Amino acid sequence: MPTFTTSRRVEFGDTDMAGIMHFANFFKFMEAAETDFLIARGLSVSWNQPDGRFGLPRVAVACDYLKPARFAEVLTIQVTLEKLGRKSLTYRFDFANSAGEPIACGHITAVLCRTTDNHQIESIEIPADLRDKLQA
Question: What is the pLDDT of residue 49?
């Protein structure tokens, strides 16, 4: 499946008193990496079309931690489209520190949804054109 690599610096506000990135901030980094992955393919996590507003809300997230990320480190995040289902997709996020050591592995599963004019949210099948861009 397609992979994409991006990087992000651990800012002071991402850390605790010991200078270690708080576990919840890995999820923010995963979301930013997903956005970079999609933008590189001409896509977004949310967009409007004449027949409604479309988006990829999360239905599952997880992260396993191997080593701490520390203040001022530049993390490399490899995004892999691990699974592309009929309505959903699952990303894998492999984090490495500035020494290239693996520090965490996360997953996000999202479902393609459309919000109608009457504010109903419905899951829909991933159309062929979107599927092609995701797999590029």
Answer: 87
Q: What residues have CB less than 8 Å from 36, skipping those under 6 apart?
A: 4, 6, 79
Encoded tokens for 48: 């409007």
- Residue 44: half-sphere exposure toward Cβ, Cα within 13 Å: 7
Q: What is the average per-residue pLDDT within 68-79? A: 97
- Percent helix, percent strand, percent coil in the chain, to nearest 5: 20, 45, 35
Q: What pTM value is reported for the model?
A: 0.93
The CA-atom distances, in angstroms, between 95 and each of 69, 80, 114, 124, 125 are 9, 12, 31, 31, 30
Residue 133 sits at φ, ψ, to 5 deg, of: -65, -40
**18-53: per-residue pLDDT in tens?**
999 999 999 999 999 999 999 999 999 999 888 889
Structure tokens at 114: 């459309």
Structural tokens at position 68 = 């701490």
| 3-state SS, residue 32 | helix
